[in-house]
């Protein structure tokens, strides 16, 4: 029986991201659409255990005793030796720094243009076994690189043309559907986060890449035009930039109408999305691709019947497919106008909600897992 090995350590890193946690939940479901294989969760972390009903078999590669080579090289040797010995039908990784060298079997890398083109490196577990060839990085050893959009594929291919034929596009729509909240539940959420008022919501990583200052400027224009009391809520994973953002808000003219909620639990963030008047994701991103493909708030909004506003960039066009109201990046006047239209035009708002519900019929976990299963079968039959 062929083995499919999932290197899960990149999904276990702290702080845990929502997308990583969702992948951990989805992998057992992927095994259900790939029967007839031995599914292995491979880890080099000590003390890890799976739930009894989990269909994955856990293999731990933890050194029995300290090595004179050091922790990194010890992990390198253990993983390379295990792959060489067992020769699995497929090795699936979520970290470009953990792609094994050629000759150890077929490999699928699941990543994004943001990650692959960042140039950053935490230190590959295989850094001692291969080097860059013709300016192409070590992740070239993967047989297939799965990215979340054609915009990601184009960005990577532009930088590394030789990798174009290896790239497959599968948007990671792996979120469980969330239901619209009832009136009383919505009111409770509003009381907790916005003083009982309807609110615009940005839900995502609170990072400089999403240029929240641009969003605040567009919001300022809206306040100037309409004198509306509808607040703006920013919620999501904190980053090194988050304290800077909070400090800047202390001098913001409309600071009493802006709230920041970093590092909420996933369930709390879902409630915020479900009760929002509109989701802003994001209005002024940096570049043409969504950061790491983490558009999960958009999936939640489509499911919950919340209209989505975003940037007119290739990746967002692919994700929304006409179900979101888009503005040119950097065009504060148009961004503010979009906010005003969604605030004043109930027919437009209802139209976007309906289109979002149509979009989610294609953008869902079942379709995503079937797409991944198709890629896997190309290697394993």
Describe the structure.
The chain is of the alpha/beta class. It folds into two domains: 3-174 and 365-380, Glycogen Phosphorylase B (Rossmann fold); 183-359, 3-Layer(aba) Sandwich (Rossmann fold), CATH 3.40.50. It is 39% helix and 14% strand. The strands form two sheets. A seven-stranded parallel β-sheet has the order 3-2-1-4-5-6-7. Mean pLDDT is 88; it is low at 120-134.
CATH top-level class of the largest domain: Alpha Beta
Assign an overall shape.
elongated
Give the distance, in angstroms, between the N- and C-terminal Cα atoms. 11 Å
Poorly predicted tracts of residues:
120-134
Mind sketching the topology for me?
Layout: E1 3-7, H1 18-32, E2 38-43, E3 57-60, H2 71-86, E4 90-93, E5 107-110, H3 113-116, E6 144-147, H4 150-159, E7 167-169, H5 183-193, E8 200-203, H6 212-226, E9 232-236, H7 242-249, E10 258-262, H8 266-275, E11 278-280, H9 296-304, E12 308-311, H10 314-320, E13 325-327, H11 332-344, H12 346-359, H13 365-380
Parallel strand pairs: 1-2, 1-4, 2-3, 4-5, 5-6, 6-7, 8-9, 8-11, 9-10, 11-12, 12-13
Give the structure's gist in a few sentences:
By secondary structure, the chain is an alpha/beta fold. It has helices at 18-32, 71-86, 113-116, 150-159, 183-193, 212-226, 242-249, 266-275, 296-304, 314-320, 332-344, 346-359, 365-380, and strands at residues 3-7, 38-43, 57-60, 90-93, 107-110, 144-147, 167-169, 200-203, 232-236, 258-262, 278-280, 308-311, 325-327. The strands form 2 sheets. Strands 3-2-1-4-5-6-7 form a 7-stranded parallel beta sheet.
């Amino acid at each position: 029986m062929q083995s499919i090995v999932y290197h899960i350590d990149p999904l276990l890193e702290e702080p845990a991201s929502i997308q990583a946690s969702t992948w951990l939940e989805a992998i057992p479901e992927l095994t259900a659409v790939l029967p007839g294989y031995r599914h292995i969760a491979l880890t080099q972390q000590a003390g890890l255990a799976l739930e009894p009903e989990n269909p994955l078999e856990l293999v731990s590669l933890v050194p029995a005793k300290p090595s004179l080579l050091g922790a990194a090289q010890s992990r390198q040797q253990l993983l390379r030796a295990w792959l060489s010995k067992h020769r699995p039908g497929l090795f699936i990784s979520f970290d470009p720094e953990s792609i094994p060298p050629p000759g150890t079997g077929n490999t699928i890398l699941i990543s994004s243009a943001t990650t692959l083109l960042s140039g950053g490196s935490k230190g590959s577990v295989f850094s001692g076994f291969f080097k860059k060839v013709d300016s192409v990085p070590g992740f070239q050893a993967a047989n297939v690189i799965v990215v979340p959009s054609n915009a990601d594929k184009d960005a990577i291919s532009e930088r590394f043309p030789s990798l174009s034929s290896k790239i497959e596009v599968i948007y990671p729509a792996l979120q469980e559907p969330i239901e619209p909240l009832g009136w009383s539940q919505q009111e409770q959420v509003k009381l907790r986060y916005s003083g009982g008022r309807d609110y615009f919501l940005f839900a995502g990583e609170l990072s400089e890449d999403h240029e929240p200052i641009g969003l605040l400027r567009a919001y300022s224009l809206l306040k100037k035009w309409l004198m509306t009391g509808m607040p703006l809520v920013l919620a999501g994973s904190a980053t090194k930039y988050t304290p800077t953002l909070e400090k800047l808000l202390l001098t913001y003219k409309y600071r009493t109408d802006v709230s920041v909620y970093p590092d909420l639990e996933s369930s709390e963030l879902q409630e915020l999305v479900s009760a929002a008047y509109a989701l802003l994701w994001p209005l002024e991103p940096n570049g043409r691709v969504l950061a790491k493909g983490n558009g999960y708030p958009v999936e939640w909004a489509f499911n919950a019947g919340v209209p989505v506003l975003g940037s007119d960039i290739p990746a967002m066009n692919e994700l929304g497919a006409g179900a979101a109201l888009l503005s040119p990046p950097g065009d504060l006047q148009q961004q503010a106008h979009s906010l005003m239209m969604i605030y004043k035009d109930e027919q437009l708002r209802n139209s976007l909600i309906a289109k979002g519900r149509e979009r989610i019929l294609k953008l869902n976990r079942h379709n995503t897992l079937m797409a991944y299963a198709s890629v896997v079968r190309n290697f394993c039959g």
